[in-house]
């Protein structure tokens, strides 16, 4: 399959068209950003690590009946995906209070939520990706009521699977971000990636609030050892996946 032209470049990936109209090539970058790209840097090997982790998780989710845009990985940092029209929502599922939830509510860091919280954010950098109520989401016509219901239901299903998977890796899934898209048949598919860039992950063997961090918070908060943390997550994911095969 030949790669044609660059279709889109985001903070973490470049999308290229291919000779198949409904297939795109996603090239994962080592670039790292935080705080709506106000902080920029690079994490060595991040593209390949995130692409590999995402591909393994997409394969595991597909085996559990979750439809995704994932097709194949032709290279460590490249993923063939189904072309989708992205629903302009960032869907955040929270199991434990951290990050903006603590800042906006005053909940202490590490508070375990009685049930998972699903938040919707408007995917718009110029507006700062604001948190939306359901009514505002519908007012802006970002998705239909049926799509919102489906996305919320899928997000919770994905959370159930990922919590269990990460636990097998010795990792606590604190919260994570999802994106969804519609294919040419208007079928809702899980898109984007699932990686230490999009998940807040804590090492279950560590109690220290800084040493336990295994995700992009190490970059955001200048904790150091970012590459080592990402590499450790990858190794644990591969161990769990290989143990199943």
UniProtKB/TrEMBL annotation:
Citing just one GO molecular function, the answer is:
ATP binding
Q: Report the top EC class in one word.
A: ligase
SAICAR synthetase/ADE2 N-terminal domain residues are: 6-236
State the UniProt keywords alphabetically. ATP-binding, Ligase, Nucleotide-binding, Purine biosynthesis
Name the Pfam families on file.
Answer: SAICAR_synt (PF01259)
Sequence similarity? Belongs to the SAICAR synthetase family.
* Name of this chain's protein: Phosphoribosylaminoimidazole-succinocarboxamide synthase
Quote the gene name from the UniProt entry: purC
């Amino acid at each position: 399959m030949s790669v044609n032209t660059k279709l889109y470049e985001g903070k973490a990936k470049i999308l290229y068209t291919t000779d198949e109209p409904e297939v795109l090539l996603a090239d994962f970058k080592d670039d790292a950003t935080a705080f709506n790209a106000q902080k920029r840097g690079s994490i060595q090997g991040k593209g390949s690590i995130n692409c590999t982790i995402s591909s393994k998780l997409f394969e595991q989710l597909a085996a559990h009946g979750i439809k995704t845009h994932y097709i194949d990985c032709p290279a460590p940092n490249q993923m063939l995906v189904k072309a989708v029209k992205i629903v302009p929502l960032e869907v955040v599922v929270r199991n434990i209070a951290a990050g903006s939830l603590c800042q906006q509510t005053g909940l202490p860091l590490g508070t375990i939520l009685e049930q998972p919280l699903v938040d919707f954010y408007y995917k718009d950098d110029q507006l700062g990706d604001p948190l939306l109520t359901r009514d505002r989401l519908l007012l802006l016509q970002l998705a239909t009521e049926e799509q919102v219901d489906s996305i919320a239901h899928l997000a919770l299903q994905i959370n159930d699977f990922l919590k269990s998977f990460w636990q097998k890796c010795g990792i606590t899934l604190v919260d994570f971000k999802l994106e969804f898209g519609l294919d040419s048949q208007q079928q809702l598919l899980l898109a984007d990636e699932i990686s230490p860039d999009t998940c807040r992950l804590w090492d279950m063997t560590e109690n220290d609030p800084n040493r336990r961090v295994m995700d992009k918070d190490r970059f955001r908060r200048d904790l150091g050892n970012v590459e080592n943390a990402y590499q450790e997550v990858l190794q644990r994911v591969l161990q769990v996946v290989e143990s199943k095969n």
